[in-house]
Specification:
Radius of gyration: 32 Å
Largest sheet: 5 strands, mixed
Shape: elongated
Strand content: 5-15%
Number of strands: 13
Helix content: 40-55%
Number of helices: 19
Distance between the termini: 54 Å
Oligomer: single chain
Length: 588
C-alpha cells in the first residue's frame, strides 16, 4: 500500500529520534525509586502527571515497551499500568483477572532478570520479593489505570531506568518475536519476510478511537477477511515496517504542523523533504496577509523552485472502535498544493466590512473548520466525516466540491432564517469550484448587480425589503426575514407579492419622515425588481444557493455604504446628507 510505504519512508528519513524495536513514546505517570538491593527510597512514587493538558493527565511521554493487547493478558515489561504492576484491580469484581495479569508480569520480569543479569532489573525483582506495593503509600485516590516504571540507584551512585538498558530492550524484542512466523511479501518494503499476525503497535491521536490506540491494519470478523487471511495478515507486514509506519503516523498526529482534526475526522500530511510551506496553519487558522501573498504569487510571475517538486502526502482518517479507517489518500507535490490552496481561498472570498483583516483591505479568510461547521447546527455532534474530507481534498487538489455541501448550507440558512458569512463563503466556494472555466477575478466577492440569475436578485430583493422595514421601524427585533426567508428562498412567486404589499406602509412612512431614505430605497427596489422579470414559481437547489448569495451580498453592500457614510461624517463633523440615509445604522 502506498500510504504504508510513504509512512515508512517518513520514519526512516525524517524522524530523528529512533525508538528501540517494540518501544513507543507513551505516557508514564509514576516512577518508583529503588536502591540496588530493591529497597524503596521513597514510599511515595515520583509523579510525572501534568494536569494542564489532556495527554499530560496520564503522565509525561517516555520511550517504553509497547505492543498491542486486546482481550487477552499481555504484560508490558517494567512499564505497565497499576493493575499489572501492583496486582490491584480498579474494579474489585475483576480482581481474579488482575491476579493473573500481575502473575504474568512477575514471570516476565523474572525471565528478564535471569536473561540479562542487569543489576537494575535484579533490584526490581528484589522489590517484589520484599513485598512489592505493600512498601508504598499509594492512597485511596491512586489511579491503577496509569503506567508505572522504576528507577534504580546503583551502588556507585549511577541512576538507571531498566527500560532504557539495551539488554532489556533486546530481551523485550526477543520475547515478542514469533519463532515460526509465516513468510510473505511485505506491503511496505516489498521484501519476503516473516509477517505479523497482528501489528504490535497502535496509532494514537485519531479522534474517536480507543484511548489505548487504534490498529491501522485489522480484521476481527470474517466479513473483513480476504483469501482466508485473518487479523493483520489481510495486509501482510513485517515487524520492522509495522513499527516504522506506526511510529511515523503517531509522530505526525502528535504535531499540529502535520495534523488537523475537524469533528470526528483527523488529517495527517507531510512532505518528502522539509519545506517552508505551512499547510496546517492555512487550514487551521489562516493569516490574512499570508493568504493574500499566496493568492498574489501567480500574478507576480513566481518561478518554479525545487521545493515545488517536493512530494506532498496527506491522509484522512477516522476511527471505528479499535480500528483506524483510511477515508482518503492524496499523493501530489508542494507546488500543486500551493496553487490549490491559493484557489481555495480565492474562491471562498466574500466581502463584508465586519470581517475584514485589521488593515481593512481584504476579507478575513475562513478555516476549514469554520466552513464545515456552517453546514450543521452543532459541529461537535452533527458533522458527518464526509464534509471535512470533501473540503480537505478540494483544498489540496482543486477538485470540485459536491453540490450536497451547498444544499446543507442552504438548509441551515432556511432553518435559521438568515445567511451567515461562513455559509455564504461555502456556497460560493461550492458553486465556483464546479465551474468548467476559471471565473474572472473577484467574481461574486461582492454585490453582482449584473448577475444573470433571477434567483440571485430575489435574494437581493428580500434584503432590500428588510432594509425598508428597518429604516421605517428603527430597533425592530424581528424582521420579515425571520418569518419568510424559507418560503421566499424556495417559492418566490407565492411570497414576494405579499412582502411588497407589506412594504408599502413602511415606504409611505419614510416618504413622510425621511424623504432621502425613501428615494434611495424606492430606487433600489425598482432596480432589483427590473432584474428579476417574471417571478420564479420555485427555485431548485442551485438557485436557492444563488438566492442566499444575493441576500448576503445585498446586506453586506448596505453595511459597506453605512460604514462609508459614517466615515464621511466623522471626517467632516456636522455634515449630514439626509437624501442618502437609508437607516442602515439599525441593521444588525
Amino acid at each position: 500500500m502506498t500510504l504504508l510505504s510513504k509512512l515508512k519512508e517518513y520514519a526512516d528519513e525524517r524522524l530523528e529520534d529512533q525508538l528501540p524495536p517494540l518501544y513507543a513514546s507513551t505516557p508514564v505517570a509514576w516512577i518508583i525509586m529503588l536502591d540496588s538491593d530493591g529497597r524503596v527510597l521513597s514510599p511515595h512514587p515520583i509523579s510525572r502527571i501534568d494536569p494542564s493538558t489532556t495527554r499530560g493527565k496520564r503522565g509525561l511521554d517516555m520511550a517504553a515497551p509497547e505492543v498491542q493487547r486486546a482481550a487477552g493478558i499481555k504484560p508490558l515489561l517494567l512499564a505497565d499500568n497499576g493493575e499489572y504492576t501492583f496486582g490491584r484491580a480498579r474494579d474489585p469484581a475483576k480482581q481474579g483477572r488482575v491476579d493473573q495479569a500481575h502473575a504474568q508480569y512477575r514471570e516476565l520480569l523474572d525471565r528478564c532478570a535471569v536473561t540479562t543479569e542487569e543489576p537494575a532489573v535484579l533490584a526490581v525483582k528484589r522489590f517484589y520479593e520484599r513485598g512489592g506495593a505493600d512498601q508504598l503509600i499509594l492512597g485511596d485516590e491512586w489511579d491503577y489505570g496509569l503506567k508505572v516504571t522504576f528507577e534504580v540507584t546503583l551502588e556507585d551512585g549511577e541512576r538507571q531506568r531498566p527500560i532504557d538498558l539495551p539488554p532489556v530492550q533486546a530481551f523485550w524484542l526477543a520475547s515478542n518475536t514469533p519463532d515460526a512466523a509465516p513468510r510473505s511479501q511485505c506491503l511496505a518494503c516489498g521484501e519476503s519476510k516473516p509477517v505479523l499476525d497482528r501489528l504490535q503497535a497502535k496509532v494514537k491521536g485519531i479522534r474517536g478511537g480507543q484511548s489505548s490506540g487504534t490498529s491501522i491494519i485489522s480484521a476481527n470478523a470474517s466479513a473483513f477477511e480476504s483469501y482466508g487471511l485473518e487479523a493483520s495478515r489481510i495486509a501482510p507486514t513485517c515487524r520492522e515496517c509495522g513499527e516504522s509506519f506506526t511510529r511515523a503516523l503517531n509522530s505526525l498526529l502528535a504535531d499540529e504542523r502535520t495534523s488537523l482534526t475537524v469533528a470526528d475526522t483527523t488529517f495527517a500530511f507531510w512532505t518528502r523533504e522539509r519545506v517552508a510551506f505551512d499547510f496546517g496553519s492555512h487550514m487551521r487558522q489562516p493569516d490574512p496577509s499570508q493568504v493574500q501573498s499566496l493568492i498574489d504569487s501567480p500574478r507576480r510571475g513566481r518561478q518554479a523552485t525545487i521545493e515545488d517538486e517536493t512530494a506532498f502526502y496527506a491522509a484522512s482518517l477516522s476511527a471505528s472502535g479499535g480500528r483506524a479507517v483510511i477515508r482518503d489518500w492524496i499523493d501530489t507535490t508542494v507546488g500543486s498544493v500551493e496553487d490549490s490552496v491559493a484557489r481555495w481561498f480565492r474562491l471562498q472570498r466574500i466581502s463584508d466590512p465586519r470581517d475584514e483583516d485589521p488593515e481593512g483591505t481584504h476579507p478575513r479568510p475562513l478555516s476549514l473548520f469554520q466552513l464545515a461547521a456552517s453546514t450543521v447546527r452543532d459541529a461537535r455532534r452533527d458533522l458527518p466525516v464526509t464534509t471535512p474530507r470533501s473540503l480537505f481534498r478540494a483544498a489540496l487538489s482543486a477538485t470540485p466540491l459536491p453540490l450536497e455541501l451547498a444544499f446543507q448550507a442552504v438548509r441551515r440558512c432556511r432553518a435559521e432564517q438568515g445567511v451567515t458569512r461562513p455559509r455564504a463563503a461555502l456556497i460560493k466556494l461550492v458553486l465556483l469550484s464546479r465551474e468548467t472555466t476559471s471565473p474572472k477575478e473577484n467574481y461574486m466577492v461582492a454585490l453582482e448587480t449584473e448577475h444573470p440569475s433571477p434567483a440571485y436578485h430575489c435574494g437581493r430583493l428580500l434584503a432590500v425589503i428588510e432594509e425598508v422595514q428597518r429604516a421605517a421601524l428603527p430597533g425592530v427585533n424581528a424582521t420579515i426575514v425571520d418569518r419568510y426567508y424559507g418560503a421566499a428562498s424556495s417559492t418566490p412567486a407565492v411570497v414576494f407579492g405579499a412582502l411588497l404589499r407589506g412594504a408599502q406602509p413602511h415606504l409611505a412612512r419614510l416618504e413622510r419622515d425621511r424623504p432621502g431614505a425613501y428615494v434611495n430605497l424606492q430606487r433600489r427596489l425598482e432596480e432589483v425588481m427590473a432584474r428579476i422579470g417574471d417571478w420564479p414559481a420555485t427555485l431548485a437547489l442551485k438557485e436557492q444557493a444563488l438566492f442566499s448569495l444575493g441576500y448576503y451580498h445585498q446586506r453586506a453592500h448596505g453595511r459597506a455604504e453605512m460604514a462609508s457614510r459614517r466615515a464621511s461624517r466623522e471626517a467632516e463633523p456636522g455634515v449630514e446628507d439626509p437624501k442618502t440615509d437609508t437607516g442602515q445604522e439599525h441593521q444588525s
